[in-house]
From TrEMBL:
<dbReference type="InterPro" id="IPR000065">
    <property type="entry name" value="Leptin"/>
</dbReference>
<dbReference type="GO" id="GO:0005179">
    <property type="term" value="F:hormone activity"/>
</dbReference>
<dbReference type="GO" id="GO:0006629">
    <property type="term" value="P:lipid metabolic process"/>
</dbReference>
<comment type="function">
    <text>Key player in the regulation of energy balance and body weight control. Once released into the circulation, has central and peripheral effects by binding LEPR, found in many tissues, which results in the activation of several major signaling pathways. In the hypothalamus, acts as an appetite-regulating factor that induces a decrease in food intake and an increase in energy consumption by inducing anorexinogenic factors and suppressing orexigenic neuropeptides, also regulates bone mass and secretion of hypothalamo-pituitary-adrenal hormones.</text>
</comment>
<feature type="disulfide bond">
    <location>
        <begin position="117"/>
        <end position="167"/>
    </location>
</feature>
<dbReference type="Pfam" id="PF02024">
    <property type="entry name" value="Leptin"/>
</dbReference>
<feature type="signal peptide">
    <location>
        <begin position="1"/>
        <end position="21"/>
    </location>
</feature>
<dbReference type="GO" id="GO:0038108">
    <property type="term" value="P:negative regulation of appetite by leptin-mediated signaling pathway"/>
</dbReference>
<dbReference type="GO" id="GO:0046427">
    <property type="term" value="P:positive regulation of receptor signaling pathway via JAK-STAT"/>
</dbReference>
<dbReference type="GO" id="GO:0002021">
    <property type="term" value="P:response to dietary excess"/>
</dbReference>
<protein>
    <recommendedName>
        <fullName>Leptin</fullName>
    </recommendedName>
</protein>
<dbReference type="GO" id="GO:0032868">
    <property type="term" value="P:response to insulin"/>
</dbReference>
<keyword id="KW-1015">Disulfide bond</keyword>
<keyword id="KW-0964">Secreted</keyword>
<dbReference type="GO" id="GO:0032008">
    <property type="term" value="P:positive regulation of TOR signaling"/>
</dbReference>
<comment type="similarity">
    <text>Belongs to the leptin family.</text>
</comment>
<dbReference type="GO" id="GO:1900745">
    <property type="term" value="P:positive regulation of p38MAPK cascade"/>
</dbReference>
């Protein structure tokens, strides 16, 4: 008796279930490593050291500050805001950081799915749509404040990941 394509398909069927899943500990470690890399990239940009992440700058209130309670959902939403802010800046310093934020958000979604957290993809920001004039008038200040606050947020995120954030 000859075994046709159907038999071969049935013979291969169990194999996909034999492939081990990526351990969540590895995903969490990769997430922490990427956060540290982004913080280092921000530190390497010399002009970001001139503003405290807690300092209030008039007109730049749309840039998120530190959150007292960081869940995976809050982390993703805040990173989406920073990603959109950085994408709107013409500086070459922030292109790689914006790309890293996208990768970081993907890792957060993997962590959330491992905890069975419903984490909808944060699509964008309605609050930033009308801020083109603010960004044009103060590109340098926006970049400095955004990177400084992002650095502080990432450090808080790193600490929260050690504690095991909720959904």
């Amino acid at each position: 008796m000859r075994c046709g394509p159907l038999c071969r398909l049935l013979w291969l069927w169990p194999c996909p279930s034999c492939v081990p899943a990526v351990p969540m500990r590895k995903v969490q470690d990769d997430t922490k490593t990427l956060i540290k890399t982004i913080v280092t990239r921000i530190s390497d940009i010399s002009h970001t050291q001139s503003v405290s992440s807690r300092q209030r700058v008039v007109g730049l209130d749309f840039i998120p500050g530190l959150h007292p309670n960081l869940s995976l959902s809050t982390m993703d939403q805040t990173l989406a805001i920073y990603q959109q802010i950085l994408a709107s800046l013409p500086s070459r310093n922030v292109i790689q950081i914006a790309n890293d934020l996208e990768n970081l958000r993907d890792l957060l979604h993997l962590l959330a799915s491992s905890k069975s957290c419903p984490l909808p993809r944060a699509s964008g920001l309605e609050t930033l749509e009308g801020l083109g004039g603010v960004l044009e008038a103060s590109l340098y200040s926006t970049e400095v404040v955004a990177l400084s606050r992002l650095q502080g947020f990432l450090q808080a995120m790193l600490q929260q990941l050690d504690l095991g954030p909720g959904c």
